[in-house]
Amino acid sequence: MTVTSSAQDISYATDGATTDFQIPFYFLDNAHIVVDKIDANGGLTRLTYGTDFTVGGAGAVNGGTLTALSVFARGFTLHIYRDVPATQETEYQQNDPFPAKTTEKALDKLTMIAQQNAAATQNSIRFPISEYGRDGTLPSAPQRAMNVLGFDVAGNVTMLPVPASVGAGDLRDDILVAGVDFIAGVDSSVTLSRAYGTKANLTVSMDAALQGADTFRLNGATLTFLDDNGNPAAIPFGIQKIYVKGGTTLSIYTPPDESVTDAKIAPGSKLDNRITGTIDVRDFGAVGDGVANDTAAIQAAIDFAQSRFKTDYWSTYVPSVRIPAGTYLVRGLTISYPIHLHGDGQNATTLNLMSDSNASVVAVTDMGGSLAGADNNNIMPIISDMSLNCNSSGQTPGGYFRGVSLTDSAIPVGTNYHGGAELRNLNIRAAMEYGVFIGSNRNNGRMANVRVLYSGSDCVYNSAYDWRIVDCDFGNSQNSNGYVQHAGGATEMINCNIFVNKLSGLFLDTGVNASCLFANCYFDTNQRHGTVGIGSYGDVVSHAFSNCVWRDNSQEADNTYDQINLSNMTQVTIEGGTFVVNIPAKQPRYLINTANVTRVVFNATYEQNDTPNVPYRTAVANDYLNLAIGGNENCSLATMGGSTVGVVGRNGVRFDYYDPASVSGTRRWRTQALGSVYSLYAADDSGNLAAGSLAFQVTRTGSSPSALQTVSVQPYTDNAFPCGAAGFRWSVVYAATGVINTSDENQKEQIEGIPDAWLDAWADVDYFAFKFKDATAEKGADNARWHVGFVAQRVRDAFAKHGIDAAKIGLLCWDSWPAQSAVLDDEGNVIKPAIDAGEAWGIRYEEALAMEAALMRRELKKLRAS
Fold first, then answer.
1. Which of 445, 506, 522, 601 fits a disulfide with 420 by CB distance 3.0 to 4.6 angstroms?
2. Is 495 left (phi over 0), alpha (psi -120 to 50) or beta?
3. Coiled-coil intervals in this record (predicted)?
4. Angle at 133 between CA 127 and CA 139, to 5 degrees
């Protein structure tokens, strides 16, 4: 084999993943391969064969492979080279045949040694070949002591005294790497490359955050970090690199007077940042390559900006932190003082939340308790000009991880600081929970050109007052609503699109107690309501919608949702609205559905309608309605039951209902309130009430119904509905005859005798005398009457002793009911009291008595037989 290449070494940069490294040159023995690991400061560590690495491929002309026995961290250089021992191990015997292969291998070894020596010679300090014969021998040790190696006027080697200027300007950078030079959270000191004399000769930064002179001390080459009391303190968790710049002296050459001319500074350069006052995250070590974790660097820039904020009193200055174009991996950032965090554009700068971060991309904490300054009325944090990819699929399901989170503030309404924020020019995608969360007391905020998509919960969730939201898009919520005003209110939303959300587009919750305005907004293709409001502040809330469009909402296609559904408000104004329904299979129940809304001002247009449903329904008397349908104005329409009817006018306390399918407007029903009597009539085609037309009538005493007049009361479906319920019982039933229970054999099956086991169990059932608790509570223990009968639970237990589940026998009954809130009128009076959740056991006495009779009959037979 021949040595055809002069290559005898190769270097690789470690990436924290690769373990196999190619050796592209010929070597005779695996032990001839040497590996040096070199850090960023040039520090060299010789690796050990068999402990740190193995080698394969010895004797192959194309080389082999080095395999690391553990992964090398990112940031090192591996220098792989050949080191052949200068030995001759082959013994030639006289008169033996010529050993060609052995000789060739020995020559290969000599060639490798020659290449090795040539490389060493090339790396040495030597005279040029043109000065062949010049003596390069160094002077003796006594001559070299305390002198500097130099050259005389002829260029020959000589020794010179050390001048006073030696050491001037010898600045050096030490870069100390976590995991190599120190362990964050454990070590409190690092070793520098040399002794700098005094710490005045040093500048020290942790991940680009400059450290004060009182935070460290220097002893020789050992740099120790200190706490506030001057004691050694561990290097903080998360620190990746420590940068030290130092020199024993500093020498600056001063240029001649008036010799410095103008130079054009590149925008965004570090010098430009210093001049303009911009804080750039790249100065703190951020990379923005979509690979490196930039959390610590960006947070360091934010913290530095916030430290300047506190000292500058921010009445005229809010520090700006720039995140240049790029993709930055983060594990969540925190803003605790008003700064401006901005990128280079929505499509230029991207913050990607790393998997398993389980954090909001940007969290703005409650800063109200720490702020001070002369003018804190309108200062607020600003986040702008970037995209936030929240990576919901990479986080723990169910967590409260958001795009931008403005946590609840302790600052109450009326203080100088209102707690809001300004969000503009943002794309926020795929948050685990809310895209934007605005907590309580985060008042007087602004949002412009913010696009929030694919949030796990609501795109925006707001509990604050006085937010102005302009030119925003909120859509594709995976499980909830587009925009939720949970509490607070006085929101002004203009030119916004709310679309394709899992629940409703706009949701005004019960806690909203200040009127909101929505202008030129578009509510499109939401699964449930386009707009829903369930306010509880009916005496103060008056929402307004101006020139808005509702299109193809109620996409669940079950005819239970509306374009607009509002309740419990003083007034709703819908001016210049447009309603569009283009999908016949997915039509809204109503265009507008209001309940307990004192006044509705309505002027709208209904376009491209394929729905059979009527376009307006309300549960209150509304005095100002103006609905345009095909040019016809002043039409108030409603839906009742499964049929469409028209409410054409209100005559005192009487309503006539028309059949809309009739060209002549045939009347079908009339409701009338006269004095204390409310009546429902079946009218003839002319609207007259013939004899027998009364269908239903209720008489009241005071505010309570006292009498019901009607024909036979029948359920709509046979054997499908109960009369009353476990939680809604009739107190007394008065009847002229007994209750008739169906006992037709044609409606029964599995007809057989009562099992003796049942009768044996029934024999253990006792009769009791008792009083009802509600009777004693109302009448007193002495006045409440005694009753006799069974106790259901004791019947259950008697059967259980015999191994029988009495619940499978119709004589024992069990029911439960959910809690129900109280029903109030407009003035807050209780119409129907609240009901707690509960359960009740009962007995069907006719079956219990039948069981008793069967037991007596059996026992009588036994007596007769004996």
1. 445
2. left
3. none
4. 70
